[in-house]
Amino acid sequence: xxxxxxxxxxxxxxxxxxxxxxxxxxxxxxxxxxxxxxxxxxxxxxxxxxxxxxxxxxxxxxxxxxxxxxxxxxxxxxxxxxxxxxxxxxxxxxxxxxxxxxxxxxxxxxxxxxxxxxxxxxxxxxxxxxxxxxxxxxxxxxxxxxxxxxxxxxxxxxxxxxxxxxxxxxxxxxxxxxxxxxxxxxxxxxxxxxxxxxxxxxxxxxxxxxxxxxxxxxxxxxxxxxxxxxxxxxxxxxxxxxxxxxxxxxxxxxxxxxxxxxxxxxxxxxxxxxxxxxxxxxxxxxxxxxxxxxxxxxxxx
Length: 301
What we know:
Elements: E1 2-3, E2 6-7, E3 16-18, E4 23-24, H1 25-43, E5 49-52, E6 62-64, E7 77-81, E8 91-95, H2 100-108, E9 111-116, E10 132-139, H3 145-161, E11 167-170, E12 176-183, H4 189-204, E13 209-210, E14 222-225, E15 235-236, E16 252-253, H5 255-262, H6 274-284, E17 296-297
Parallel strand pairs: 12-17, 13-14
Antiparallel strand pairs: 1-2, 3-4, 5-6, 5-9, 7-8, 9-15, 10-12, 10-14, 11-12, 11-16
Helix pairs in contact: 1-2, 1-6, 3-5
């Protein structure tokens, strides 16, 4: 196919990657082409980790950080220090998604999910200080999106009180993710601040919230995962597909939508597939427009 001046070879377009809803590779490619105008700004300058599902979401998956053997010459990459999870390598050549053909290339590899860190590279390819804070709200057994929405509302109040301007999106899976554009003192500053927020919530309502990962602690509670602010970690990008049965999408939502769920609206109202997301963007624009938000300085600490 030809797109934006690039020629790409695509294959197995009829292959069903989401069997429950009959969603094919061609539809995955089409979605990423159409969502590109709002997705690409959120991954610009951020090294990408893909999750690839070559045999569909019912098959085996793997993470791919190193771009080397697959990427055409025109796909940009950056050499970055290898995170601790990548054994045996000091550096990785990681993809930078900059244009629609890049998304077509990755979608053709069945790279269903796009994950990025909370920092960008500067013009020289060096990691800048984190520019985003993220708190991942993950429901434990016996809880769901409603409980996450209650915690998300409380987090928003605290972030606003600290001078930040938060946004929220669904994870595309079970929970929610609260972000805020930030200025910070050092690379570990967001982790320290996020941990203090999580621990503050737990002091108030220890029966509802947990900040530690141990499975035994999680039934009936929402995990406030502050650890995603570690510079070695990534979080699913806004508008990325998720490798879930219904071909759901990590979707920006409004605080009014979150509060409606908190107050009893059907949690299904904030679960979106690709068609719903494209329609929302046409109607509402980018609800995750970080560039239009106030970038606040994290409290010292």
